Amino acid sequence: MAVALKTQEIVLNMGPQHPSTHGVFRMVLTLEGETIVDLKPVYGYLHRGIEKLSEGRSYLQAVPITDRLDYMCAMTNEFAYAVAVEKLAGIKPPERAEYIRVIMAEFTRILNHMMAIGFLFNDLGAYFTPVLYAFRAREHILDLFEWASGSRMMPNYIRPGGVAGDLPEGFIPQAKKLVAHLWKFADELDTFLSENEIFLQRARGVGVLPPEVAIAYGVTGPVLRASGVKYDVRRAEPYSVYDRFDFEIPTLPNGDVYDRYMLRLLEWKQSLRILEQALDQIPDGPVSEKVPRRLRPPKGEVYGRIEAPKGELGFYLVSDGSDKPYRFKIRPTSFVNLGVLREITIGHKVADVVIILGSIDITMGEVDR
Amino acid sequence: MTDLENILPYLGELIARWLRGFLPSWLVDMIMMAIVGLLIILLMVIVVMALTLLERKILGRLQDRLGPNRVGPYGLIQPVADVLKLLIKEDIIPEKADRLLHFLAPVIIVVPAFMVWAVIPFGKKLVAADLNIAVLYVIALGSVTSIAILMAGWGSGNKYALLGGFRAVAQLFSYEVPMALAILSVVIAAGSMSLQKIVEAQSPLPFVLLQPVAFLIYFICGVAETNRSPFDLPEAESEIIAGYHIEYSGVKWAMFFLAEYINTFAVSAMVVTLFLGGWKGPILPSYLWFFIKVAIVVYVFFWLRATFPRLRIDQLLNFSWKFLVPLAMANLLVTGLVTKLGLVYGIKVTAYWVGNILVGGLGLYLLGRFTPKKALA
Amino acid sequence: MFGLGLLKGLYTTIKHGIMTYFKGYKHPFPKRYFTGRPAPRLEPEGVGLFTLQYPEEKYSMFPRFRGALMHLRDPQTGQPKCVACGACALACPHGVIEVVAEGKGKERKLVDYLYNLGRCVFCRLCVEACPYGAIEMSHEYELATYENKMVLHLEDLLKIGDRSNVTESGWAWK
C-alpha cells in the first residue's frame, strides 16, 4: 500500500513591489514546497494609454510619445514608428539619414543587451557588480546620444522623413573609439561571466523553451533565436539599409537561460560589426526629407515592423486622410514574449522564476503601454 | 618587542594585584573575568561597526565606485549614523506573529556569536579561556544559530520568512558536517583540540600548506555557515527580500545584523587560527599579526560577495552532501593514515602533499565531469 | 579544470578594484572632490573610478541638451523676439504653452507667456515650430522646487534666457 505524503500548496504573491520583477509586474505563484505548480501573471500597473494619446495627436507630435514605450531603448521605438509612417505616406528618407538611423539603432541594441545581461546577473545574486560594469559602458553610449540629439533617454531624434538634425562635429571619430572599446568590454564580460560555474549550474537546463512552443506563442527576438529558430526581421523583411551590411544572425540550440544570455552577447558582437561598417560607409548629404509639420498621409493602413533589441516591434497605423492617425496600434515585443512565461516556468523552483523572467528581458513600459 | 607583546596581561596583573589588596580572592577572579568579557564584547562591537563600513567601501571599490563618503570624512561616521537610525526606529510586531518566538529569536542568535570569542586566541597569552575542547565548543555554538533562524522564520507569520527559515536551516545543518570533518583533520594533525595548542603546533609550516584540501573545505563551509554570498539564499534580496528577518525592524534587526557580522569575523578568525598560523609572525606583536591575517581573510569574503551569483537551495545541498562530505572524509582518511605512520617531519609534509593532491585532484575531476558545461550540453 | 571560471571572475573584479586607485576621477587628497571647473567626461577606458561627487562636481552639458524653455531677446533692442503667433502652443503635444496676446495683425503684442513646467516633457517641438527663433531650450536641469510653482511666466523665462548666454535659437543644430 503506497502512502502519499500530504502537503499543502501555498499561494505566494511576488507583488508589484519587488526588487527583481523589472518594473511593476505581479506574479501569483502557487507553490508546493519550492516547486511551482501554477503561475498567473498580473500586469497593467503601468498602463498610460499611449495608443489613445497618440490617436489624438498629429504624426509628428506622436514621436515623443513613442519614445516612452520601451523607455530603455528609445531610438528603436522611434525607428519603428518612422518606418511605419514612411510606408504609409510613401516617403523615402535620404541616404545619410538611413545610415544615421542604423547607427543609432545598433547602439541601442548594444545598450539594451548590456543592461539585460547586467540585470540577469543581479537577479542571480551577483551583488550589482555586472550591473555597474555594464552601466559604466552605457554611460559612454548615452553621452553619444546626448551629443547628437539633446537627451539621453527620450531622444526625439528619428522622425518620419529622416532625422531631426545632422550629427555634430567629431561624432564619428568618437563613435569609432567607442566601438573599439566595446569590443574589449564584450570580451571582458565574457571572461568574467560566461564560464562561471555557479552561473552554469543555475542557468543550464532552466526555463527551456522548445522552438515549436516559441513559434506558437509568437515569441520573437533573442528569446526565439536562442531556441534555434533563425528568424530576424532585418533579414526576413529588410528595412532601411540593412541589406548592405555583412552580418550574421546567431542562433543557439538549447533555449535555456544560459543560451539566451550567450545569444545576447553574440548579438552584441554582430551589432559592433554592423556599426563598424556603417561608420565607415556613411555618405554625406541631407538628413531629412521635407515633410510638412502636419503630415496628411493618404487613406490606408500599414503594418511597419523592425527588429527592436527585444524582438519584433510593429506599428499598425490606420489613416483616414486627416493629420491625426485614426488607429494607432502597437505590437509590443515584451507583451508577446511574456505570454510564454507560464509555460516555461511550471516545474521549476521559486529561485528560477526570477531568472527566467530576467532572461526574457521585459520592460513594463512596453507590456502595459 | 616583548614589552608591546605583553601589555595586556601586564595591565591585567596590575589591576588584579590592586584589587586583591582589599577584596577576597574569589571576588577578584570574578571581576577579572567580567572585565575580560566586557573587553571582548566592546572589541566585537567596534569591529562590527568597522566591518559594516568597510564592506560597503570595499564593495564599492570593486565596482568602480566610492562607498559611502558623505557622512564624515571618507564616510567614517557612517556606522554611527546607521546605529542611531536603528536605535530610534519603531519596533513593529506583525499581527499574526508568535510573540514569544518573535522576541526570543534575535537574542538567541546573538548570544552564541559573542560566546564563540571566549576561546579564540588573539595573541600569545591572550585567550579568554583556554579550553582543551575549544574546537568542540565552537562547532556546538555554530549549530545553535539554526534554531534561532527557524524561530525567526516561523514566528514572523510571513510566508517569505518561512521560506527563508526553511532554506536557512537546511543549509546550516548540511554545512556543519563537512566543516566538522575538515576541522577534525586539523585536530588530528595538531594532536589537540585546544585552539592555543593548534596555533603552537603550526611551526614551522602553517596548516594551509599541509592540508590545503581541508582549508578549502573549511573556507567554503564557513562562508555557508554565515549565510554570505554565494550561499546567501536564506536572505536572498532579489527573490524573497530578506528572508527570515523580513519582519524585524529597529534594534531586533540590528541584532541579526550584528550576529551576521560577528559570525563572519569569527569564521575568519577560525580560519586564521586553524590554518594560517594564528598569531605567529616575526617582528610585530602577536595580536597585530592576528588582526592583519583576519583582515585579509575578511577581504576575501567581501571579494567573493562582489563577484559570484548565488546557488539555488537544492544545488547548495547537493554540493554539500554529494561532494564536500565525501571529500572531507577522504581527506580525513589520508590525514589519519599519514599521522599514524609517525614519519620524520620532512617526509610527513611530502606525504601530506601527495595525499592532498590525490584527493583534491580526484574531487575536482569528478566535479568537472558532472556539472554543466559552457559548450552545447 | 573545474573552478577556472570562478578564478577568472575573481581576477576581473580585483583588477577593477585596484585600478580605481590609479585611473578615473582622481580627487586631490585630502579633499574628496575638486571644485571650480566642470568635471571632465571620461574617455571610454573600462577601468578606473567612475564616481562624480555631485553637487560639488558637475558636468557641463552638451550643446544640444534640452533643459527648461527660455525666451531670447533681440540683441539690438533688448525686447523679447516673440511675436505671439502661437505656433509653439499648437506644436506642443501636451498643451504646455499658453500664449496670452492682444491686438490683431500688425498690432499683436505679447502680454504674457504661460509655460507649465510640470507638464513639459522637454521634446523641443515648440522650438522647431517657432518661425522667429524666439525660444530655445536652456541647459537648466536643476528644476526641483519646494513651492508649488509649476507655471512660469514670461519674466521667468526671460531671466533664464539672460542667464544662459545664448543669442540665437538653434545654435547647436547648425
Could you describe the 3D structure shown?
The complex is a heterotrimer of chains A (369), B (377) and C (174). Chain A is α+β, with helices and mostly antiparallel strands. Chain A is 48% helix and 13% strand. Chain A has helices at residues 50-55, 63-67, 74-89, 95-124, 129-149, 171-194, 197-203, 211-217, 222-225, 233-236, 257-281, 333-338, 341-345, 350-360, 364-368, and strands at 10-14, 26-32, 35-42, 158-159, 162-163, 300-308, 311-319, 327-331. In chain A, strand 4 and strand 5 form a beta hairpin. The model of chain A has no long low-confidence stretch (mean pLDDT 88). Chain B is an all-alpha fold and 377 residues long. Chain B contains 14 helices and no strands. The radius of gyration of chain B is 22 Å and the shape is globular. The mean pLDDT of chain B is 85. Chain C has 174 residues and is an alpha+beta fold. Chain C has helices at 4-19, 87-91, 125-129, 154-163; strands spanning 69-71, 97-102, 109-116, 135-137, 151-152. In chain C, the strands form two sheets. Chain C has a three-stranded antiparallel sheet with strand order 2-3-5. Chain C has a two-stranded antiparallel ribbon with strand order 1-4. Chain C starts with a helix and ends in an 11-residue tail after the last helix. The model of chain C has no long low-confidence stretch (mean pLDDT 84). Classes of the chains: A alpha+beta (369), B mainly alpha (377), C alpha+beta (174). Chains in contact: A-B, A-C, B-C.
